[in-house]
Prior knowledge:
The chain contains 21 helices and 12 strands. It has 612 residues and is α+β, with helices and mostly antiparallel strands. Among the domains are: 68 residues, no CATH class; 189 residues, no CATH class. The strands form 4 sheets. Strands 1, 2, 6, 7 and 8 form a 5-stranded antiparallel β-sheet that branches. β6 and β7 form a beta hairpin. α3 packs across α7.
Amino acid sequence: MITKMTKYAFIMLNGETEDFLKKLQGLGVVDITRSKKPVDDVSSAMLEKAAEIKKAAALLEKADYSKDEDSEAIMKAAGTAALPEDAVTAALDTVSELEKLKMQLSQANKETAEREPWGDFDPAEIRKLENEGYTFRWYKTAKKKFRDEWASEYAMQIIEDDGSSVWFVTVSGSGEEYSFPLPETAAPAGSWKESQAEAERIKNEIISAKARLLKMKECIQGLHEAYSNELADLDLYLAGAAKETAADNMVTVLTGFAPADDDERLSKEFDSMDLAYIKDSAVEEDNPPIKLKNNWFTRQFEVLTGMYGMPVYSEFDPTPVLGPFFLLFFAMCMGDAGYGILLIFIGQFLRKMKGSMAKLGPLVTILGVGCIFVGIILGTFFGINLAEASWVPGWLKKCMITGEIAGYSSQMILAVGIGVFHICLAMTIKAVCYTKRFGFKENISTWAWLIFIIGGIVTAGMALLGVISEPVTKWTVIVLGIVSGLGIYIFNTPGRNPLINVGAGLWDTYNMATGLLGDVLSYIRLYALGLAGGMLGGAFNNLGMMVHDGIPVPGLDWIGFALIVLLGHALNLAMSCLGAFVHPLRLTFVEYFKNSGYEGRGTAYRPLSRRA
């Protein structure tokens, strides 16, 4: 449900604004109307600083050199490194420097490899001989192209011969005619030892930079605190930037919202501040922030509501309906009781972690429990068909949904039936909530469609079960058709030209017929995904048995079986979880929200507090 809000208007002198906002931070329950983006250079700079702090912390968290080839040298250098005064700037600069050094090292290593065949020589001596009139020419050629007779024709020195290539130098005096059957190679800029020394120098700088980053990991906790404080300061500034001023900029008016349950406590606090303020119950026109209030079970699914968008103040909270159906859809898409057990273990593991991952632990555990029950009903346990297993008790098999209905899989019929119920529930919620928001007169067509669809389904079901006779069915259908037809085609918009209403009704009929058919058929994915996951799990089981039977070595056959089954089911679990999350979310966001009229344009409740 949506928590009732109280709207506050605070009136104060401009000089009192900052102290008042700091006091609101201490209370931690008042949501001051903020700017949705930086409003000036000051807030832009604050946001940029917060982003830099967050980036620096993330870079330091990634700094792990335990598997680096120079890990010992890095650890030793880190032990003697000093912490910088400004960890943010130092971390960002060091990472940038490290990237440049890595590029320089790659270039130095490449140059060393190119120079190595030429050996160690003194470029100064070469230049000295060139000044005396000698010309040096450098060559590299394939071994098969090299001719030994060149040594008798030219002043030549072979520098390196590795069996596939030959490096050599020729020398000629000034004024001598010279020609050679091979093109020259660019002369090395220096000896390979010089290049090797340069590479070693760069490598030592890289070790030093990595050591500094490793040392700065001690600052990570402080950076997280600085990030939270910077966001809190930004939040405070934006709250102040949202103020309205009056009386020649001498008076400030701030607007805020807080849960109505805190009215008494807040009133005492504001009275003690000797503050002029006005409070009133928030209404939709005030666009108050939305705070959801649900029980423990439903609260785990509020994150899914937030992914689509919070309700506006006069809307309904979709979470109490979203939660149970998402759990059911997820379990049907997984379709395996064994995977539900694994999800429970994963959920308990996540609960022991920190941060946002720990918050997902209860939700994953709930989904795992649902998978166990639904998986048993669908008759699948780690890819094993429980309905055909001899070791499964007979009473448990009676609880499973198997076989066919009218030539179709009973599980597919179940998925479609759930889809019909889900959409009918959405249409009912839309009719009730829209009537509450806009009045019955504006929603006659909505009620007419609801009567026609649900009434038709109920009448058809009772007729098929023999509860009502054929004449009663006939007259019920006639009455439903007349009542719903009048609402759809004649009175859909009271006060408008009837001919226009008829045209609008026909267009609405086309959209409703095509839309509902597609919506209902979308729920077949619940059956298809569960079936695919079960078949894939069974395929891995069979593949494991084939490997087991194909290995004649005792013990090794079971190792092969275990590897195939464990890896296969791990892959199937990951794929099934992805599909079981995305597709139920799609059924909720598209089919359900569309037919329930949910808009999701509200703003989440975000009170002013020290911790962002």
